[in-house]
Design a protein that fits this description.
With 304 residues, this protein is an alpha/beta fold. Helix content is 31%, strand content 21%. Strands 1, 2, 3, 4, 6, 7, 8, 9 and 11 form a nine-stranded mixed beta sheet that branches. Helix 2 links the parallel strand 1 and strand 2. 43% of the residues are buried.
């Protein structure tokens, strides 16, 4: 069973069980020893654009919890965050996918034993313009829109005769760049593991940009995190199979796996995290941190 599509709900998932590499521990200890009394400890938190709004909300709230720690957040995509983790410039990598075998091999070669922390969930939402009359779509139809050789290029194939403000009924496909964990997840679960994306999509750098482009393009469709919803777009119900009832992403439908494109969100550390990083991650996974998940439009971990 692929945990990215029907995931278990442990509060903490260990990617590996070995201790962190000696060099990595030495660097962390040296950084802590170099910190002056009263000086804030800086924690670089890099990665997933899906998670960047949530990560920023966590960082801002944590400033009031532990003023001695400054959490610095930046996006760029899951691949960017994991690369930063591997080259030693990130204490935490945010990822909307699991580390792949090549990344794990690079970590091992660098003397790292990455630790994986499950910190939230996301319903990957399918967005269309607010004036699009369509309310539901199936995984099969999404695949036909996005995969190379797919047969759906016009809204007419989905029963949409016209969209107010659109010039014709051609579908404008909005996607993500290939360093994105969202791009990889959508390819695996919708486009097809062995399939390529159809050429000609508008590939955005971030999750927010996907929703913004769909909002101002009447004929567009795009996929992005649930936390990026705005009043200017419509979220479609998604059915596992054509003809079945569609389901909207929500806390309940992600927890019970009835929404078909749900996914876990992770934080990775290069090994056993130093005390201030561990305390931050534990706070993220606490009731206080999970309240922020829900307030930010994401899906919190189920309560024990």
């Amino acid at each position: 069973m692929n945990r990215s599509s029907r995931f278990p709900f442990p509060m903490l998932v260990g990617a590996v069980t070995l201790a962190a590499g000696v060099a990595l521990v030495g660097c962390a200890k040296k950084a802590e020893e170099g910190q002056k009394p009263g000086e804030k400890a800086s924690l670089q938190d890099i990665g997933s654009d899906t998670m960047v709004n949530l990560a920023q909300a966590w960082a801002e709230a944590y400033a009031g919890v532990d003023p001695a720690v400054s959490v610095e957040v930046s996006g760029g995509g899951s691949g960017v965050g994991i690369a930063a983790l591997l080259n030693g410039t990130a204490a935490i990598a945010n990822a909307s996918r699991t580390m792949d075998s090549l990344e794990m091999a690079k970590a091992k070669a660098a003397g790292m034993d990455p630790k994986e922390f499950l910190v939230a969930y996301d319903g990957l939402a399918i967005y269309v313009h607010k004036d699009n009359p369509l309310d539901q779509i199936s995984i099969e139809e999404l695949g036909e829109i996005y995969r190379e050789g797919g047969k759906i290029d016009d809204w007419g194939a989905l029963g949409v005769k016209s969209i107010p403000g659109a010039k014709g009924t051609a579908i404008v496909r909005v996607s993500r760049q290939n360093n994105s964990g969202t791009y990889q997840y959508f390819r695996e679960h919708v486009v097809g593991k062995t399939k390529d994306y159809k050429p000609g999509s508008l590939d955005m750098n971030g999750s927010k940009e996907v929703v913004e482009l769909v909002a101002k393009t009447p004929g567009a469709i795009g996929y992005s995190g649930l936390g990026y919803a705005t009043p200017d777009v419509k979220i479609l119900k998604v059915a596992k199979k054509k003809g079945e009832p569609g389901v909207l992403p929500s806390i309940a439908t992600v927890h019970d796996n009835t929404y078909p494109i749900s996914r876990p969100l992770f934080m990775y550390t290069p090994g056993d995290p130093p005390a201030h990083v561990k305390q931050y991650i534990e706070w993220v996974m606490s009731d206080a941190g999970q309240k922020i998940v829900e307030e930010s439009g994401y899906v919190p971990l189920p309560k024990k």
